[in-house]
From TrEMBL:
Its EC number is 2.3.1.286. It comes from Seriola lalandi dorsalis. It comes from the Eukaryota. This is NAD-dependent protein deacetylase sirtuin-7. Zn(2+) binds at C199, C202, C229, C233. Its cofactor is Zn(2+). Pfam families: SIR2 (PF02146). One of its GO terms (cellular component) is site of double-strand break. GO terms for molecular function: histone H3K18 deacetylase activity, NAD-dependent; metal ion binding; NAD+ binding. Belongs to the sirtuin family. Class IV subfamily.
């Protein structure tokens, strides 16, 4: 018994000694890295003999620090915005115009870069949300309902109207493609739409388009908006797909439409996207085909993207500038956004009187200032649009295996 007790004490002492040795080793390594880093910062001519000896003694540490610096420099270059000069930009846009004219099935992928002109920040640009957070800066919140479709949004709508663009796949949640007049059967909003809330207790899922940002109370894994379905009284949830979540809604995500469009595409035009998220969606890139049978890729972005080496053409310019030149090359007039014709005004389901105070976000009001479309004065349950696919959700899966409750 005494032997067992002695063995236990011995093993504990050994573990403690081992842990202490590991801590001391880490501390020693940290001091060596700090010393070598300090020496490397000095110009070679200014280093003393002792400092030169330190570098010789710790060659592995020097090599590791040099590798880290190379990686930092590469990352910094990738984050820099590059602008083509005016002549090069025009030349590249001419090449893009030829590709657009010759395309049989052109699909457009859009990211946050097409909405920066509407004062909506992007994520990875110099003033992007994540860039600012990485620098330890605070990011001011803004009501995105005040934004309006940009020149790029309106150009895309016109190109679709002229049957040159077949489908648009967007990572944006700002709803500006919908508000530009682009039909929903030609749109996949992969990460949701901030103006749409749904009742997943109804079958098929019932959709409510609102004139304000419905995501005021929602966040990662918390999607309840606080309002109730007019028919079943189930809690409504937003349609946003946050990082770390998997989108399961048929609409407005429309993954089926996106995958079918990618399968048919012979040209893909990427506008204002870093592609760091989109690249992970294998069904959008036809990578199971041989390189010669994949869609031709054209990219418009100011920063590096992981698809640059696969692109037929990379245009370093602002989306509005590029699209303006493209429309000129194609001899198309750019439509002007008119709030009076904003589709969201006619699609919106009015709030019931008891729901008027359920949010504090800016409301998209008609240009004449009428408020009758914002509230249902009678308080009677208006039938909301059931998601079935296309413009009204036609093609929604008939038999859902199980209902999901709002989280």
């Amino acid at each position: 018994m005494a032997e067992e007790s002695g063995t236990g004490v011995s093993s504990r002492a050994e573990r403690k000694a081992l842990e202490k040795a590991k801590i001391l080793q880490r501390e020693s390594e940290r001091k060596i890295f700090s010393l070598v880093r300090r020496v490397l910062k000095k110009p070679e001519a200014e280093r003393s003999e002792e400092e030169a000896a330190v570098l010789l003694l710790h060659r592995d540490t020097v090599e590791e620090l040099c590798k880290r610096q190379v990686r930092r420099n590469v990352l910094k270059r990738k984050q820099e915005e590059v602008f083509d000069d005016a002549e090069e930009l025009k030349s590249k846009v001419r090449q893009l115009a030829v590709a657009v004219k010759q395309a049989n099935h052109l699909v457009v992928y859009t990211g946050a870069g097409i909405s920066t002109a509407a004062s909506i920040p992007d994520y990875r640009g110099p003033n992007g949300v994540w860039t600012q957070l990485q620098k330890g800066r605070t990011v001011s919140s803004s009501d995105l309902s005040k934004a309006e479709p940009t020149l790029t949004h309106m150009c895309i709508r016109m190109l679709h109207k002229e049957k040159m663009v077949k489908h648009v796949v967007s990572q944006n949640c700002d709803g500006l493609h919908l508000r530009s007049g682009l039909p929903r059967n030609a749109l996949s909003e992969l990460h949701g739409n901030m103006f749409i809330e749904v009742c997943v207790s109804c079958s098929p899922v019932r959709e409510y388009v609102r004139l304000f940002d419905v995501t005021e109370r929602t966040s990662l894994h918390r999607h309840g908006t606080g309002r109730r379905c007019n028919l079943c009284c189930g809690e409504l949830r937003d349609t946003i797909v946050h990082f770390g979540e998997r989108g399961t809604l048929e609409q407005p995500l429309n993954w089926k439409g996106a995958a079918e469009a990618a399968k048919k595409a012979d040209v893909i035009l990427c506008l204002g996207s870093s592609l760091k998220v989109l690249k992970k969606y294998a069904c959008l890139w036809c990578m199971n085909r041989s390189a010669s049978k994949r869609p031709k890729l054209y990219i418009v972005n100011l920063q590096w993207t992981p698809k640059d080496d696969l692109a037929m053409l990379k245009i370093n310019g602002k989306c509005d500038d590029v699209m303006s030149l493209l429309m000129e090359e194609l001899n198309f007039q750019i439509p002007v956004y008119d709030r009076a014709e904003d589709p969201i005004l006619s699609l919106a389901t009015p709030l019931r009187p008891e729901e008027v105070d359920s949010h504090s976000r800016e409301v998209i009001a008609p240009p004449d200032g009428r408020q009758d479309c914002l509230v249902n004065p009678g308080g009677q349950a208006e039938e909301a649009t059931a998601v079935q696919g296309g413009w009204f959700g036609r093609g929604y899966g008939k038999g859902r295996k199980k209902k999901k409750t709002a989280s």
